[in-house]
Amino acid sequence: MARDTVTGSRIRERRIVAGMRQAELAREVGISASYLNLIEHNRRRIGGKLLVDIAQILGVEPSLLSEGAEAALISTLREAAADATAVSPELDLIDEFAGRFPGWAALIAEGHSRLGMLERTAATLTDRLTHDPHLATSMHEVLTMVTAIRSTAGILVDTKEIEPEWRNRFHRNLNEDSQRLAESSQALVEYLDGAGDAGASLSSPMEEVETMLMEHKYRFPDLENADGDVAAFVAAQPMLQSSAARTMAETSLRRLRTDAQQMPRDAFAKVLDKVGLDPSAIAHAFRVSLPAVFRRIAILSDDLLETPAGLVMCDGAGTLMLRKPIEGFSVPRFSSACPKWPLFQALGRPLHPISQRVLVTGRDARQFDCYAIAEPIGAIEFNVDPLYHAYMLIVPADAPAQNANEVGSTCRVCPAQGCAGRREPSILVDGI
Amino acid sequence: MGKRVLLIEDEPNIIEAISFILSRDGWSVATHSNGHDAVGVVLANPPELLILDVMLPGKSGFEILRELRDAEATRDMPVLMLTARGQTKDREMAERAGASRFMTKPFSNADVIDVVRELVAT
Question: Fewest beta carbons within 10 Å, which of A40, A171, A289, A382?
Fold first, then answer.
């Protein structure tokens, strides 16, 4: 059975695992049981909001139910294979393995992801212990106080005849040093506690922000009016563990709020009906920037469009700072992305909007319409080189085109041969 | 008056404690507490033994020692280095800089006296 026709079967499987009756799930998502039955027997296609709703009720990621789920799993398995040193997994059997043993495959993928996170945490903590000036200073302070106390106490105990003036002096020194030691060790413990928390989060600030945004489905109605307290909202989000993540989240939310105020949902829907999915026309209609339109389309697409749209944003160094994932367009989590993405082309031509049909290399080889632009950060000043942020809106293409540019996710799992932008060999030596 | 020991250390209570125990052991103890002008202080009146902390304000003990080893008057002067860090690389750095001995904080008073006696005797 073709990959894209078994979403219904997966829903059925997950529903049974969750112990739900068909009628119950249908009622929860607001469709008839007979329609759900047709979906579950793969006689009706499913996507968009309904798929997201069903996934939420079943407590799984939508991608696990959709056609991209196996592709994502296989992609992670390939990464695991690429990182293997002592063994050589049979890459040519990877499809069969994931298809026949999805549970075991998922276990390997999860283990690989966790191992990667733990390695990053270990590297961060090692780096901190080795190079952290604050830690070195704290340790030095503690050891210095211990030395002073030990030496002074030794004098008081070992010196049989000691003048009262010296005894009093050493007692005072002991008191001072013990107080300083208490403060130093307390500060050190607090610092190490903080370091432990940072390590325990096992994720980067960007991932924490991403998790928060996804958990709220990128919608923050309470924050969209001027009274919404963004700082309080951010402080109340348990997944935002690091201060870096909280700062990033606050910046993102303020930006999304401005977008929402400039392009309210209902007004946006009307313009969308009138001009279609044309970012330029929407920007003209609302007199806003293209990046703002990209963000608004990406966020409202789950609600207003048949298929959700994705969004990525990077800084001038090409570091991805915001990701709204989309099925079929894999955005690497930790490695560098494909340099052929219009996102990076936009960085080379700031303020020059780019629209491009792309074909994502790989098993599904799907096409997307990408819209990208780089805009300067902050105010433009004379004789000051501006810095840029680039945005790329990713919209699934309705119908395939002949002139699509091939792009990948990241070099390691990209089968394209003879690519001038390749940074490292692909593990897919023989293609897919 | 005993042999002269110069202690360069920035922690006042450690200065006081070491000064006390060495004085009681018969040494004449001079002290100095920063790295900026430490080399000049040593060269102006070289002691029989220098006790030198590694982490000093202004200039590290390693740098001070390297400069002293370049000077004729202090090339062979016994130097005991004190540090709060006992890592292998610190020991290696101390040896490369020309330290005669290396002690890691916290140390006992008896150890300090033993090492000082040993270094000056040799």
Answer: A382
Q: Model confidence over A271-330: pLDDT tens digits? A: 999 999 999 999 999 999 999 999 999 999 988 888 899 999 999 988 888 888 888 887
A194 Cα to chain B: minimum distance (Å): 23
pLDDT tens for each residue of A341-398: 999 999 999 999 999 999 987 666 789 999 999 999 988 889 888 999 999 999 999 8
How close are the terminal C-alpha atoms of chain B, in Å?
20
In a domain, A232, yes or no: no
* Cross-chain CB nearest to B105 (options A147, A158, A169): A147
Q: Which of A139, A140, A147 sits opposite B107 (nearest CB)?
A: A147
- How many domains would you assign to chain A? 3
Chain A residues touching B20 at Cβ < 8 A: 155, 166, 170
Whether B74 and B102 have beta carbons less than 8 Å apart is answered as: no
B13 has a chain A CB within 8 A of its CB: yes
Range(s) of the domain holding residue B73: 4-121
Kindly determine whether residue B14 and residue A170, on different chains, have CB atoms separated by under 8 Å. no
Q: Which of A200, A221, A252 is the last residue of a domain?
A: A200
For residue A90, being part of any structural domain is answered with: yes
> CB contact, 8 Å: B107 with chain A?
yes
Token digits of residue A80? 């695991």
Q: Do residues A90 and A180 both lie within one domain?
A: no
Beta carbons of A84 and A77 less than 8 angstroms apart: no
Give the distance, in angstroms, between the CA of residue A424 and the centroid of all CA atoms in the same chain.
23
Closest-CA residue in chain A for B18? A151
Q: Are A360 and A409 in contact (CB under 8 A)?
A: yes
**Best residue of A142, A143, A144 to probe chain B, by most B CBs closer than 10 Å:** A144
Q: Which range of residues forms the domain containing residue A102?
A: 3-111
* Pick from A323, A319, A321, A300: nearest CA to A310: A323
Q: Which residue has the tokens 């201060």?
A: A243
| Interchain CB contact of B84 with A (< 8 Å) | yes
- The CA distance from A398 to A328, in Å, is 14
Put simply, the chain A residues between 332 and 371 with a CB less than 8 A from any chain B CB are none
pTM for this prediction: 0.48
- Using DSSP bridges, classify how beta strands A405-407 and A367-376 pair: parallel, antiparallel or unpaired: unpaired
Interface contact B71, partner A, CB < 8 A? no
Burial of B80 (0-12, 13-18, 19+ CB in 10 A): buried
Residue A180 lies in a domain: yes
A149 and A96 within one domain: no
User: Which stretches within A61-163 are classed as H helix?
Assistant: 62-65, 68-83, 94-100, 102-131, 133-158
Q: Are A208 and A241 in contact (CB under 8 A)?
A: yes
Among A139, A140, A151, select the one facing B17 at the smallest CB separation: A151
Asked if A173 is an interface residue toward chain B (Cβ–Cβ < 8 A), one would say yes
CA dist., res. A85 & res. A102, Å (int):
23
Residue A185, token pair as written in the block: 């060790």
Phi, psi of B31 (to 5 degrees): -130, 160
